[in-house]
Every structure is written in C-alpha cells, then in structure tokens.
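[Discussion] Sanity-checking designs against the backbone

I'm trying to build intuition for which residues belong where. Below is a structure token string of 218 positions. I'd appreciate it if someone posts a full sequence so I can compare it with mine line by line.
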C-alpha cells in the first residue's frame, strides 16, 4: 500500500528529543492531612488564632474580606456572652436590679443581628447569612470594651464626672462599631441601597450602646 516506506529506516545515531515520561501531578503531604487527625490542642490553638486575627481587623477597621472569607460564630458568641454577663444587674429573682438580665441582652443582640442580616439579603446583598452574622457579632467588640471600662468607672462611684467619662467612651466605641461593620458590609450592597442597610446597623449598635450607658449596678 505504501511502497516507499519499506526503504525508510531510523538511524540508531539519531537522538530522540523530549522526555518520554508520563506526567504525574505533584502530590503534597497537605492533601492527605485532615483536621480530624490533628490533636485537639492544635485545633483549639488554630481557632483561637483565627478569632484573634478577626479581633485585630475589627479594632483596625479597613475594607477587607477577612471576616467574610473565613467566617465563624465563636467570636460573636464569646462577645455576646461577655457583654450579657457584664450587663447582668443582679440575681435572676431580683426585681430592683440595675440592668437587663442575661437572656434579655442575649436575645436582643442575636435577634437584632438576624433582622439586619435578613434586611441586607432582601435589599440584594451578596454575602451569605452567616457571613453577615459574623461581621455584626465581631463588631460588638468595641462596645464590649466600652462596657468593661464603664464597669471599672462605676467602681469609683456614680456621679456627674463618672457619667461624662462613660458617655465619651460609649459614644466613641459606638462610632467605632458602626464604622467597622459598614467597612466590611458596604461593598456587598447595591450602591443605591447602602443607606437602607447602614441605618438598621446604626440602630442596632445604638440600642446596645444605650443599654451600656444607662446601666447602673445593683
């Protein structure tokens, strides 16, 4: 069929160029690594470092996707419990306590965060439900610090100077929480609806700030 091919031969002296190997994808040890196999101590330390990094992002707010990319609810839970404990006015059966009870603060914070998240989603937000909860919860950190400072100030007595100091601290931390949350959430909203998203956030942190400012120990 092909008479010319019979005279064709390949010389043994002609080198064959190229590498005759079957390409195999690089296999890293990390591919076989699973968090189920690591010690509990390593898991806890990794989670604590992640929570600490998010606290730093809140205290130095800037436009970043760190809270949105690696979201978690451990930090918000710790902040919510800490704030509720510090706002605890007295024993559960006390009628003359000077502040809201633990359950009231806990429900107000989480219910408010859920309402804001639903409002953001209905307005066309591009972040998930739990990402929004994560941001709103972590941005309670400045107000938690304000509550701690107010408790220390109240140890010295409740007077005009004490109230002025607490007012300055609460107002500053209220602004910090609002700015931090909007810095993380603003880019996830349509440009013409950002005001409709920021206003509920403003009210959310204002209510928490009001609880902190008006708190008086038993």
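Best answer:
Here's mine. Compare freely.
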């Amino acid at each position: 069929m092909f008479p010319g091919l019979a005279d064709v031969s390949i010389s043994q002296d002609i080198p064959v160029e190229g590498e005759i190997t079957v390409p195999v994808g690089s296999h890293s040890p990390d591919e076989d690594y699973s968090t189920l196999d690591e010690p509990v101590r390593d898991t806890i330390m990794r989670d604590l470092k992640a929570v600490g990094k998010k606290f730093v992002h809140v205290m130095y707010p800037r436009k970043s996707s760190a809270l949105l990319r690696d979201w978690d609810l451990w930090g918000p839970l710790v902040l919510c419990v800490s704030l509720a404990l510090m706002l605890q006015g007295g024993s559960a059966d006390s009628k003359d306590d000077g502040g809201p009870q633990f359950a009231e603060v806990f429900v107000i914070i989480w219910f408010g965060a859920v309402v804001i998240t639903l409002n953001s989603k209905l307005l066309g937000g591009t972040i998930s439900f739990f990402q929004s909860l994560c941001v709103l919860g972590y941005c309670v950190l400045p107000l938690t610090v304000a509550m701690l400072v107010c408790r220390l100030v109240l140890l010295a007595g409740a007077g005009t100077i004490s109230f002025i100091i607490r007012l300055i601290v609460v107002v500053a931390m209220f602004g910090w929480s609002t700015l931090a949350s909007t810095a993380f959430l603003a880019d996830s909203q349509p440009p013409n609806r950002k005001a409709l998203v920021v206003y509920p956030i403003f009210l959310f942190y204002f209510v928490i700030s009001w609880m902190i400012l008006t708190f008086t120990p038993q």
